[in-house]
Amino acid sequence: MNRSRHRAALWERVPGGLDGRRMLSVAFVDRTGSGLWEAVSVLYFTYVAGLSLAQIGTLVAASGAVGIAGAPLGGRIADRLPLTRVLISLQTVRAAAAFALLTTDNFALLLLFASVGSFGDRSANVLTKLYAARIAGPERVRYQAVSRTVANAGWAVGGLAAAGALAIGSASAYAWLLAGNALSFLGSALITALCAEPPTPSRTVAKSGRPAPEPSPTNPWRDRRYLAFVATETVLFLDDAVFKVGLPLWAVHATDAPHGLVPLLMVINNVMVVGLQVPLARFGTTTPAARRLLIPLSATFVVAGVAIAASATPGAGPAAAFLVAATIAFTLAEIVHATISWELSIALAPDAAQGSYLGVHGLAQSVQRSIGPLAVTAAIATGPAGWITFGTAIAGTCLVQHRLVRPRAVRAPLSVPSITVSEH
User: Fold this and answer.
1) I want to staple 114 with a disulfide (CB 3.0 to 4.6 A). Which of 57, 63, 163, 315 is the partner?
2) Helices (H), 137-170
3) Which residues of 32-64 are buried (b: 16+ CB within 10 A; e: fewer)?
4) In whole angstroms, what is the distance from residue 18 CA to residue 196 CA?
5) Rounded to whole angstroms, how far apart are CA atoms 383 and 254?
6) What's the gap between Cα 94 and its chain centre?
7) What is the number of other CB atoms lying within 10 angstroms of the CB of residue 378?
8) pTM for the full model?
9) Which of 80-89, 189-198, 346-355, 371-380 has the lowest mean pLDDT?
């Protein structure tokens, strides 16, 4: 009973009030659907749609390229239209695209529907973060940490359900998983419809620990400082490619560790994110604090690179131990960078163009999805020295970003509560 009351109290303390909690439900439902689909998408296109390997590769690459445009365009639209309405529209588009995949095995149509879905996915991702920034105010870092934790939990639930469907292995099981993904988008749209429109940034007077910026352009494509920041972000997001491509391939082809360790490494990553994202977020709740975290983040990437390189040591035991150490280090880097990235991406953006700026920042993750696999496969091909170089290069990028986002000459107080100007 006490435990239930404690959980209820924690839920009540989520930043953003009722709408903040509703958007956490959106994150859980959305990511549960994604967990259902992404684990089996290639198998669906192979066994149900009957596509060749070349066609599947083309479909994934082309739809991913279209998705890159979703982040900046979605952000730009959100600066001009009510945010909740845009989010509902995008969730509906994602649902329609997912359902449409069930209706055909024609390659051209599948490519079209997958591209529309990818565009909606990247746009909705940016707009959900923008909603969090507006609804949570100075507690935005904590809110994003809670949201990321909830999303990872949803992903795990969807992945477990997909694993059960894989055991069945029938075409209808794959189709039901895709339908479940589509229904998750409709559910997200319905929950979003219950949310109020958040305060617009033009009514926000001060932000969480943010230095007073110099007059800056409202077009992110003309803001050289922000573009340089996004370029460094692309490198820092490479931990995603490590877990999706690098660790599995390296563990199987270059170490003596048992192959059964690979899924356990993914479990370690997921459990650590769920358990540590919120507690560690408190170290980066202001802009100066987030900037300071770049120094220990740099050291963590070095340790991670050395650990994965050391896993090439002969023997199953030592190899497994170093792979676990590398997984822990890369996961810590992922958690800390998520906190830094979220705070700085908002702090460096002018109030009048938050959506446009966050959209451009979203390009970092999109571009990383293309170059990340190439970077980690290059590290694998080079051997242990390649992984040490990989970790060191990302560590150096942390130091570059630390200098890039240093405060301007004129500063405001380090921590100023958000003040909303009355409309009356």
Assistant:
1) 63
2) 140-168
3) bbbbbbbbbbebbbbebbebeeebbeebbeebb
4) 9
5) 8
6) 18
7) 12
8) 0.75
9) 346-355
Residue 102 pLDDT: 92
Distance CA(151)–CA(274), nearest Å, equals 9
Q: For 182-194, b where at least 16 C-beta lie within 10 A, e where not — what string?
A: bbbbbbbbebbee
At 358-412, the pLDDT tens digits run 888 888 888 887 788 888 888 998 999 999 999 999 999 999 999 999 886 544 4
Q: CB–CB of 66/121 below 8 Å?
A: no
Query: For residue range 106-131, what is the model confidence (pLDDT) as tens digits?
Result: 999 999 999 999 888 888 888 888 88
Please tell me the distance from the alpha carbon of residue 95 to that of residue 92, in angstroms, as a whole number: 5
The closest of 252, 281, 280, 277 to 265, measured between CA atoms, is 252
Looking up tokens 């979003």 gives 192
Q: Which two tokens stand for residue 334?
A: 């992922």
Helix (H) or strand (E) holding 320: helix 316-347
CA 151 to chain centre: 10
Q: Lowest-confidence range among 202-206, 352-356, 376-380?
A: 202-206
Of the candidates 400, 395, 375, the residue with the CA atom closest to the CA atom of residue 302: 395
Give the C-alpha separation, 343 to 227, whole Å.
Answer: 16
Q: Which pair of tokens denotes residue 378?
A: 């290059």
Question: Which residues is 341 bridged to in the sheet?
Answer: none
Residue found by looking up tokens 């922000």 in the block: 226
Helices assigned H by DSSP within 39-106: 41-43, 53-78, 83-101
Of 359, 80, 410, nearest in space to 216 by CA: 410
Q: What is the pLDDT of residues 128-166, one digit of tens each?
A: 888 887 887 778 788 888 888 888 888 888 877 877 777
Burial zone of 260 (CB within 10 Å; 0-12 exposed, 13-18 middle, 19+ buried): exposed
Tell me the two tokens of residue 23. 């958007």
Coil vs helix vs strand at 204? strand
Average model confidence (pLDDT) across the chain:
83
Q: How confident is the model at residue 211 (pLDDT cuts 50, 70, 90)?
A: very low
Interatomic CA distance for residues 404 and 383, integer angstroms = 32
